[in-house]
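Summarise what follows for lecture notes:
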Amino acid sequence: MNDETPSATSRHRRGVLKSIGVAGVATVLPTGSATALDLGTTLDETLDTATDSLQEVLVVLETVDDIALLDTLSLPDGYFGFETLPIAYTRAPGTLLETIADLPEVVSVVPNRELEYYNDDARATTNAQEVQAGEGVDGYTGENVHSVVIDSGVDGLHPDLTDNLVANWRWIGDPLTDDGDTTLWADAGPINTDDNGHGTHCSGTVAGNGTQSEGEFSGMAPDADLTVYSAGLTLLLVKVVAAYDHMISQKRAGETDVQVVSNSYGITDDGDFDPDMPENVATWEALQENILPVFAAGNSGPETNTLNALARAPNVLGVAATHADQSVAAFSSRGRSDDFHGESNYDREKAYENLETYRTDGDVDGPLGLYRNGTGAKGADVLSTMNPAHPLQAVGDDTELFYGSLDGTSMSCPAVAGCATLVIDAYVETHGTVPDSIDVLNTLEATADLDAIDDVDDPDGADEYTAENIGTGYVDALAAVQRAEDGDLAGFGEAEIAPSGGDDEDTGESEDVSPSSPDRDR
């Protein structure tokens, strides 16, 4: 596929998410003929319409006000409508699900599926250390920025996290409870809400201050405010949507000023980008509130077309994982090749503009998804905060009591979220205003290093950068912060994208080599 080739695909949706905007992606059909695709298949095919058993679902509607239409139905357990997102959660038998899907205002009905967690110091390779130390810039540590981590939880008592932890929101109940209490999140305060250590590790990479190691193992933005949504070991879709809804509501109410959200989880499938998935609706709305979503690419590499479904949105930054030598790890998920027999696109601007049109007008010609990685950061053997009692503490080879070493794009994602935090901090400190999230995303891509792998003689991972495995290259916090200081944030089209590697990419690793344990950090 050539990114300059106009798409032959036309999309139309049953309804328009009137309060939400989206952008476009390049599409290629095997025949090259003009084809009308209907994204209005509202009922997810995995739902059983023949059963009388209750199935948990999320219902995406055109607007928040349309949620009240569910009052006209006899739902066995009622429903829970979110405050800022046009989404409701309910339980219903198969025939009633069909009735819900037939409502003209309903965009999609999907099961409350379970998502996956994608499980020395990454600061040095990203140049975050130089940013913190003031080498070539004034020196920034994230003190003007508030970042969020949605994950398994956080050890609020960890010495590296207690000073920066503003809120530790814990999932506390069933949205469909019959006791009248619809509170979904409660601030647990400085306690340990993390059952395995995954969320604590990710939180430390973003904003750990290194207290327990005298600064040696501090995170990317050690003075940033940190909020964590503790979803537990079982990450259900409703928890993710609820976290985004609460985060956006808090910001709209002026109770927080969140600018970045790190997401080390996702969905592994090989389908096309679906703008009507509840998660994709949520991340779009977050960007409209000037919150940049950063997502892990996934741990299903080295095959192509394995990219996290949530990292394909053009309004989020997907992050690949590398080894310490900056070669892309075999486990890191890849996007689609440029000769993929179906929809493929590397042009973020095209996808973003198409998606925005789709959200506002409902009709669009062209692609909506982005089928490449955004950038990359170290995700193999990353050392970060951990409670000595966390189960994942026993996985790595490190011997540090309050730190643990893990592999996965779960680890590279918060590193880039931390870099975004530094860019925003530099811009606020220098110019007095918060930059637009999409400009921060574009700047991180435009300043990424595509040559980082060139001088590596015997790489631990892939021997070249491709659009599929790393997109625009290895993240460079220093270069991005310098542009923020200069008031020269990047726009669309400035990033150089690595060429496609095709379906036969050389990973540099034998097929039986994997990150210590490929599934351990999910």
Observations:
- Residues 24 and 354 are 3 Å apart (CA to CA).
- Confidence is low (pLDDT under 50) at residues 1-39, 509-522.
- The first strand starts at residue 9 and ends at 12.
- Residues 55-111 form one domain.
